[in-house]
Amino acid sequence: MNIQHEFLYQKVVEGKSLSEAFRIADNTTKMKLVTIHKSASELSVDPKVTPRLEELRRRVIINHEITVEYVIQRLKINAFLNVQDLLDENGELIPVHLLPRETAAGHTQKKYGTVARLMLS
Predict the structure, then answer these.
(1) How many distinct structural domains can be found in the chain?
(2) Does the chain have fewer CB atoms within 10 Å around its N or its C terminus?
(3) Same domain, yes or no, for 79 and 113?
């Protein structure tokens, strides 16, 4: 493993695809897209690459204390948000600090106001 590979692995862990990471980490200006994708594909099955990527991913999860279960839970809350939970009996937006914690989680005043207005119009 060299510095270039490590940089590529870091980019993948940041959320880039292997092809994007390969373009960033390597001089690909003269390479065709097919060549870049093929090289990235070869990296994805390289027995030296997979363990390092897994190690870096584990570190990110541990450092951020985020699990797949947590992310799914947060997505469910957002996906099943009922706009009526954001309004009072007069149809006015309830200030975020007065919303139940689970309803307010992940929503700023501006965000949920925009969502409510869009859903009501």
Answers:
(1) 2
(2) C
(3) yes
